[in-house]
Amino acid sequence: MRLFPTETGHWLALRGLQAGLGPRERTNDLPALAQPLFGLHFANPVCVSAGFDKNAVAISGVARLGGGFIEVGGVTPRPQPGNPRPRLFRLTPDRAAINRMGFNNDGAKAVRERLSEYRAGTDMAQPLGVNMAANATSSDPAQDFVDLVKAFSAVADYLTIDVSCPNTENGQIFLEPRALEDLLARLNTARDETGSRPAMVAKLTPDLDPAHLRELIGIIMAAGIDGITLCNTTTARPATLQSPNASERGGLSGTPLFEMSNAILRTVFEQTGGKVPLIGVGGIMSGADAYTKIRAGASLVQFYTGMVYGGPGLVQEIKRDLATFLARDGFANIAEAVGSEHRS
Ligand SMILES: Cc1cc2nc3c(=O)[nH]c(=O)nc-3n(C[C@H](O)[C@H](O)[C@H](O)COP(=O)(O)O)c2cc1C
């Protein structure tokens, strides 16, 4: 896939999974990798992160890769084309990517239909999340999120409120504390009105100063949000980057994001006292990277850029290595290892 232009490679990978290439069936996970969270059973803590299967077109194939949960999206209420191409760039020497996709997606109606169809026809029981975003040209982005909660509450186990996208007009307006507070209150009400109770997870950017981050985490906790995903891509450009593509506009992901995302994970774990489950994302390329995030405070882990460089076998590799690390360090299960770095 790496021989093709980046977005074409991604498209081919999705089509391949959709067509049944990749693993034929899911293998059972070791009990040590399992944990209950949000009232759901996670057979393992690994997941391909948002943006990979935005439109839920390859959901069965993604499920068969063996992750413990699935996240589709980002989905906006109405379909939108995203930004002009090229908008996805590999930074090969840096094991990184820059994207400014701008939430290209088929819209809530189409994605909801695919999810309903998948749910009706599958015996795979991984928790299923929908990553939600406002339309780029929306005049009422908060209402967009409300509409998405209404559209997806009945078909999703959890909903990610993505307030961290650096690539669209409305992507980060809810980083303003009062705007976030209002949004979360409206979404709690909207969810209650649906009669379903998917967990709600907020996804943040690493590009926040410590006081701002602290304030937002306080608001998220006060609103009773079930989990926090740390983090989305960064607009920072570390001086170490080698690739000529480093000057492209957009969000940087992959290895250069690893330490940055671990730092925010540690900070938030400390502030929340480990009481809010955290999903660690950013620069995971190996089982050792995933384990570092778990020890830093992540209950669950996700990766995207690792798929670009490591291929879909990375899910199985991470699970195998996590089991080895748990046994080596004397942890009976993942839950015991979560945040253990803060106790040692
Ligand atoms: C091409 C691409 C598209 C993405 N789209 C989304 C998205 O729609 N919603 C979202 O919350 N994150 C999106 N992300 C961010 C990833 O989910 C993840 O947070 C980020 O890439 C950092 O993880 P990584 O270093 O493992 O790639 C996207 C990332 C990439 C590379």
Which key terms come to mind for this protein?
three-stranded antiparallel beta sheet, alpha/beta, 11 helices, globular, 344 residues, 13 strands, TIM Barrel, 38% helix, binds flavin mononucleotide, 16% strand
Q: How big is the Rg?
A: 18 Å
Alpha-beta content class? alpha/beta
Biggest beta sheet summary: 8 strands, parallel
SSE series: HEEEHEEEHEHEHEHEEHEHEHHH
Number of structural domains: 1
* Name of the top-level CATH class: Alpha Beta
CATH topology: the name is: TIM Barrel
Distance between the termini: 42 Å
Topology at a glance:
Blueprint: H1 6-18, E1 35-37, E2 40-42, E3 46-48, H2 59-64, E4 70-75, E5 88-91, E6 96-99, H3 108-121, E7 128-132, H4 141-152, E8 158-162, H5 177-194, E9 199-204, H6 210-222, E10 227-230, E11 251-254, H7 255-272, E12 278-281, H8 287-296, E13 300-303, H9 305-310, H10 314-328, H11 334-337
Parallel strand pairs: 3-13, 4-7, 7-8, 8-9, 9-10, 10-12, 12-13
Antiparallel strand pairs: 1-2, 5-6, 6-11
The protein binds flavin mononucleotide.
Flavin mononucleotide binds next to β4, β6, β11 and α9.
